[in-house]
Amino acid sequence: MNHFSYRKRVLHAEDVPLPAIADAVGTPVYVYSTATLRRHFQVVTEAFGSHPHLVCYAVKANSTLAVLRLLAEEGSGFDIVSGGELARVKAAGGQPGKTVFAGVGKTADEMAQALSAGILFFNVESPEELELLDAVGRAQGKRAPFALRVNPNVDARTHRHIATGLKTSKFGVPFEDTVALYARAKKMKGLQAVGVDCHIGSQITRTAPFKAALTKMAGLYKELKAQGHALRYLDIGGGLGITYTEETPPTPAEYARTAISAVGDIDATLIFEPGRLLVGNAGVLVTRVLFRKETPARQFVVVDAGMNDLMRPALYDAHHGLQPVVQRRGKEVEVDVVGPVCESTDVLARQRKLVLPQQGELYALMTAGAYGMSMASNYNSRPRPAEVLVDGDAWRVVRERESVEDLWRGERP
Length: 413
Ligand code: LLP
Prior knowledge:
Layout: E1 4-7, E2 10-13, E3 16-17, H1 18-25, E4 29-33, H2 34-47, E5 53-58, H3 65-74, E6 77-80, H4 83-91, E7 99-101, H5 108-117, E8 121-124, H6 127-139, E9 144-151, E10 173-174, H7 178-186, E11 191-197, H8 208-226, E12 233-235, H9 252-263, E13 269-272, H10 276-279, E14 283-294, E15 299-303, H11 312-316, E16 322-324, E17 332-338, E18 347-355, E19 362-365, E20 386-391, E21 394-399, H12 404-407
Parallel strand pairs: 4-20, 5-6, 5-13, 6-7, 7-8, 8-9, 9-10, 9-11, 11-12, 12-13, 15-17
Antiparallel strand pairs: 1-2, 2-3, 4-14, 14-15, 14-19, 16-19, 17-18, 20-21
Helix pairs in contact: 2-3, 2-9, 5-6, 8-9
The structure holds ligand LLP.
Ligand LLP is lined by residues 58, 61, 79, 102, 162, 199, 202-203, 237-239, 273-277, 312, 316, 371.
């Protein structure tokens, strides 16, 4: 469900026609819908009903302060993977006490900042990290709350670049090593085990992998409790997929039912870390046609957004819907929509049937709210796009377009 729709052939974000934004702010521009973001959060948290739970939005999906603020207002917690993300959560008014910290390469500084800030817990990914966290805890005279991120060795059946729960993945500790590590951690004075954690991958479109992983995790949770570890949280990670084209992922309600039944009657608060699900189809990337260009093999449409602005098609062969901002009748032709970046992979939409785009026309790359702006780069010295948040018939720039001076801040020629 999202709030981007045509009215009299013009694509709107809620009640705002996209051309109004593009004309005022320029292109490329990311446009987000407040109503979609709020609704997604509510649907997700309501899916767990009265089962004790906390939704910790995965900041990496879209770390823009206005998005974080909106979700914090809704009551969301946060899943972070760096000190930078912690700083963003705090700057946006998010609560550290509802924040969990994952990632295979945390530094001592990042750990110390998060511990001082009073985060809910650390998701620890290796024995050496456990030892460093213990030292950081002792240095602050505290017991750092932690869960081990366990690799349940489950095939999430998603793109190989975004699967994380396989044996060969760098994430988490092997399932078989977990019990011994908790026993070791119990002897460390700077640590306090509070839960167990897993995350098996992203854009997962069926329930079976979640069921398999969570059944294993619940068994582990029970075993650890029986051994005297005072655990309270089972962090089930994120990863629930969304519809880009034809995918039919489980609904949040189906997902929550699967999770709750897989974990059974354990006395844990479930932590759910959705990223894409909350923000994915709450955003579009609006771009303008620069040129058309015909070669013997292809009809190309060159637009002003490139792979640096939206990296997913180049990196994962990802498909994003492409919609004309103003619909026009005419004969459809097959085109490749490409960006200005000097790379052959800079193809935003491949072999799409469109009424032949005209120079200056606007197009929207759909479902671009997740892993769009947060993965944007300055490759080819391209300033990153502006971002706009729509709310009903009102809208505001929530991040200015970068200037070229921003590009060389800190440089010394
Ligand atoms: N929790 C952890 C520990 C994660 O590593 C991730 C995503 C999430 C939660 C959120 O997953 P989500 O609900 O968004 O699927 N850049 C890729 C996706 C990378 C996901 C990395 N981890 C893409 O554009 O498809």
